[in-house]
Amino acid sequence: MTTIATTMTTTPGPGTESLPAAGPAAACAAAHDPRAHGFLPERPPVRSMIGTWTRLDALARAVAVAPTREAAIALVERAHRTDELSALRQRVSRLSPRNAEAAAMRVAVIAVSCGWSGLDPLAPAARQAADEAFLDLWAAIAHRIDHDQFVALPTLALHNWAPERKPRRHIPIDQLARTEPLVPIVRWAPEGQPLSRLDRLMLAATRLEAHGIWLFRLAETLAGRAPDDSSTPTALRRLVRVQHALRAQLHSEAAELAAAPATAQQRAVLAALAEQGALEPPVLQAADAVLGIGGRRMGEGRRQLVRRHLPAQHRAWLSAMDRHCAPVRTLAHRGGPDAAVYREAQESLIALRRTYAALVQTAAHPTTSLTAAA
């Protein structure tokens, strides 16, 4: 990635000039600049919550290592009976934005562990399937962060990591996630035991996002460019190099992930997220917004369904890229060397997605390997 970094342009493209409003988060969307750190949080996630919120921290940690879904639900129901969940619900409005994201990550862990990840916490039918006090807490936190579909891999991964050791100085968040050894905040394996496959998959997704920062910068460079602009093929060639580097990064994660332990409960978590289309990392969605692979293969409705798991400002940025990169995507219907470079970029994204999908399959099924995606 060093070679890529030293040759990359960070000239702003038009992609941030007219970000669409997104309800209460519109101001945040306008200020968000993925060139700074991609879709990683601006600061390292909250490692340990304080005050009353230590109860949610402890509940999420206990639920994550519960041997079965029924055992996880029993822990939540006990927290309901002791009024822990209602006490937290009353304090949601006092959470800072950063702590609200930390609470959301822990709620996401609990929801997927209990098999409730597909529920709408405000739907009447959800009351028959899940603990009522937990649904109230879930809905309140969703309202606090202005995002009701946060139970997904982006929340679990991008807000569930910390550097293994405290950095000696402040460094950018993407550099921190690229260069420092990372550990999960809420572990899916008991303390003192090796990290599980699910732990390693979440950390791999975080590192993928950190290494993908150059892809976000290239997306901004390509936004608004004409297909015959002399800078377009250069940027597309760099995009190919970045996607190849991201694929190599995933391959480097594969051996340790395959050797890690897994449980049936963890595989059920992955299966539930996959069923909702809640697994694809934001960096791959950013590449799709530039190159248009998903819109063609899945249909526009399916693409928006996948994006619903991202915060409002991230969805706004992706929608802006859809619009501003449309001229570049006309290369798909042309001939000549520039069109060939565009098609190479599309093919490298398809290969990257296949490699990521194989990593997910390795996490979910012990016999799966990345050989087929090589």
Automatic annotation (TrEMBL):
Gene Ontology molecular function terms on file: heme binding; metal ion binding
Top-level taxonomic group: Bacteria
GO biological process: L-tryptophan catabolic process to kynurenine
Region (Disordered): 1-22
InterPro entries: Trp/Indoleamine_2_3_dOase-like (IPR037217)
Entry protein name: Uncharacterized protein
